[in-house]
What does this fold into?
Amino acid sequence: MNDLPSEPQRSAEDAGPADRPSPMPAARVRNRLFSKYVGLFAAVVTLALLANGIFDVWFYYQEHKTSLVRIQREQAEAAAAKIGQFIREIESQLGWTTQLPWSAGSIEQRRFDALRLLRQVPAITELSQLDASGKERLRVSRLAMDVVGSGTDYSNDPKFTEAMARKVYYGPVYFRRESEPYMTLAIAGTRRDAGVSVAEVNLKLIWDVVSQIKVGEHGNAYVVGAQGRLIAHPDISLVLRNTDMSSLAQVKSARAGAAGESAEVVQEAKNIQGREVLTASAPVPQLGWLMFVELPAEEAYAPLYAAFRRLAFILLAALAFAVVSGIFLARRMVGPIQALQAGAARIGSGDLSQRISIKTGDELEGLADQFNEMAGRLEESYAGLEEKVEVRTRELAQSVAELTALGEVTRAVSSTLDLETLLSTIVAKAVELSGTDGGAVWVLDPATEELQLRATYGMSRELIGSMQGQTAGLNTLVIGDTVRRREPVQIADLRKEPPSPIYETVMKAGFLAVLTVPLIHPDGVLGALVIRRKEPGEFPRHTIELLQTFAAQSVLAIQNANLFAEVEEKGRQLEIASRHKSQFLANMSHELRTPLNAIIGLTDMMVANAPRFGTEKALEPLRRVHRAGTHLLGLINQVLDLSKIEAGKLDLSTESVSIPPLVDEVVGTARPLAEQNGNRLVVECAADLAPITVDPMRLRQILLNLLSNACKFTKNGEVALTVAPRRIDGHNVVEFAVRDTGIGMTAEQQAKLFEEFTQAESSTARRFGGTGLGLAITRRLARMMGGDVSVTSEAGKGSVFTVRLPGPQQITIPAAQSGALAPNGNCILVIDDDATARDLLTEHLKSEGFAVATADGGLEGIKLAKELRPMAITLDVMMPDLDGWSVLAALRQDAELADTPVIMVSIADENRRGMALGAAGYLVKPIDRERLIAMLQRFRSSRLPRRILVVDDDPLLRERVRSWLDGQPWTVSEASNGREALSRIQESKPDLILLDLMMPEMDGFQVVADLQRSADWRDIPVIVITARDLDAKDRERLNSGIRSVLVKESFHPSELIARIRRLVANDGAPAAAKAVS
Amino acid sequence: MTRLLYVEDNDDNVYMLKMRLELLDEFEVLVAVDGEKGCAAALEHQPDLILMDLDLPVIDGWEATRRLKNDPRTREIPVIALSAHALAGAREKAIEAGCDEFDTKPVEFDRLLGKIRQLLGR
It folds into this structure.
């Protein structure tokens, strides 16, 4: 039998998997079944015995009692009989004495007979004879003197009367000497005159009888008289007391029985002493006495009690025995079960090698065997399972490897455009993952319809060489097949294929199995991916699928490469086109000028030499022709200049120029023009003007333009050119003013003045000639030089055009060599094409203690920004010529400048309508995640989470940004337009705003304006987003957005300053840092 | 002598065309320098043909032509529009305004002459 297990058991209900951790204490469990059995066994045994015992005892008791009673009754009867006998004897003896008639005998005789009777019957103590009349004639006694012939009359005495009536009279028992019972017995003679003999009978005998009756140990007999009085009892005192026994139940019933009444025979009753007794009785005949035999119940039932005790003892013993044997038995039964349980538990907890050993030769053994079998099977299946898991794991690992490889390939595909590298990577990975030995990618050349080998892996040089050598036309073999059929084709064993040179080559290299997969593109097949294996055999479907995935990747790669090539090509073409355009411009200008040369030159000559050529008559036409020619030339030049400026190809070649001689020159050229209209030309130019650094040609152009305009629009008036140095806003400036007394301009005309192709009125062109380009060019040139042109005029009175150019000490030299300002990044760069705006800003900034550099255009601005590395840049985004947005984008693209804070400014006019959008950052769509996050790093806020509000009408963008940022220190809230944005801001003030400026409602700028107005929100950093490349429409949208705000907002330069300070402070000293790097 | 009215504001053009036409000894060329003066001159002098430059001050050539054509007194006078605009639709626009003919500048003299003669021939 198995040892009872010592490890934790589990309850029978709970035989579950091995992961149940709660064991129950051994003893409890053990006792459940065990104690059940033991208990049961003991109970059964005990019950059986008990039942048996009780049964036995009961019947024994009954029988015992019956027999006892019987015995007693026999005793009683015997005793009663004895007593009856005794009395009868005495009766008969006494009866003898009644035989003698009185007449016959003498008294002496009688006396003699009486004495003789006394001698014979010791019980008779006294004998007296009464004659027939009841008189006593003789008394003989042992105790006293005989009395003869006393003559006492007893005729009324019952002893006489009764005796005479019934022959026999039994008198009541009385006591002599207080201890001796006597009875009077009287017998009447049979003869008529016999008289009565009365004897006083000593009943001691009865007592002896009674005493001698042996009733058990402690039982006794007693006699009860006819009146129910105790006659004889072993306890004499009771008798002497004349105890009335009639109250005893047994006595009552016996008397009743004796009287003939039916009564239950009482067998158990209390005796006169009050003890429970078992009793029986028998009547003493004639006397009417009752003989009782009683046995104390204790004694009567003693055997019974003994029997009980025995029974109890047996029971206990049996119980003990039952328990013990029960334990024994239970053990035998439970043991195997527990062994089973333990074994099952062990198996359940995973130890499948366990076997239960039960050798009881019964069902338990059979069960154990079943368990073992099951364990065995489990073991097998687990082993199988483990194996399967291993296989699965391997498969998964394989898949993971494939996915990883795929991921790598995908990344490679999207990161490099080098097609060869890509295809090589793809082939390599494909071969690796498919567990094959070599592979290649063939790409179809659409022109020749031939497949070309583009990438290989695991192929030797010779193999590559010979493969390349053999034309892999579409008709060839496996690869061609794949391409034609557009599905994978495999050869499990090359040896079994019909021979061909290519197969030979391949087999020579050691490959026996080939799988090709087409590179499928919606438009057609691009080529094929091939893998080769040295082991012959089919390729599993999994491999084919894998290859197809790689094929798809290859297609992508090829597509990308092609696209890129296209793009490159286009770019090249564009460049060529641009070059052609420039070339064209150059050519055209040459071409255009050439005939003009002839026209102008020849007419000039003919006018000059009219007499020689005989062309006096033709002077007027010739002059007109000349003039027209020159005019045309001027126009052509203007067009070309403008084109150059537009293309950014206009360069200023600056040099140090002395002003007075140049002014003279220009005036000289202009004089004829003045004279033409009868105008007086006046010049005022200080001779001691310091030279300025300027492009002299362009300066001349500007002055000439202004002068010629003045002359053109003035008739018989005055045109005055005044050149003087000025100091404006702390700068040295040279001012050229051209005043005329001509037709002047209205305010509206002035507004349009500098725009291209407009003159004050379209008919002005007719009247005064010109394309209207002059002033536009003049202004641009002036600004390029770092100055500006302005006009004041009154219609009908005249106009004053003023050109201000930077004077000698100005450090903000706009030309390529600035030199004066060291790139220490401590200045603010103001980029604005509008001189007024520029001046305005510069003024304010300088008054706040900033050093200021200015640029009048975007290119200029970028150049200066690169050189000077300013700590902040203000940028007019509404520069019409060089688009401020593009400048902004360019500033951002430039790595060095990307982090310089740029404040987008737009100032409409001197009325100070404007706004400054101090963007803390600027992003282009599509937003680069890395860029955004890098930008966000700069914003330190003590409060976490930092709240960012994303304002963009594009829900996808908002979602993307949210997905990048949510959960990090940032919490994202969204708004889809300006209005929403403002309400979000009101709900909870964000720490940062990401604002799309290109929303359809052009709300972006309004948001900015609103932010600026609120002191609370003013300092929220804003990162603005625009598109990467702005086309004209975008720019227009942006600009109109600004304009819509401009109309409403008034610009506070102090705010600008504050903004700059904040931005600069936030960024620490990035410019300085950059300067260092 | 055929009387022509040339409505043109550019002096050089006037000089040239007037001279050239008058050199033929068959034309008398009157000149008006803007559209308004042109209408007035046409009304007053009743020329045989009007050469109307289209870009004119005060009233442009189209408007002047319209007026002339709406006025029964000048309706019958043929009008040749002269324009430096090389844009498509210029011809149509001129005809729409009521011009009988259209020619471009720079003027090709013979061609213009042909057109003049043709219109006068009617």
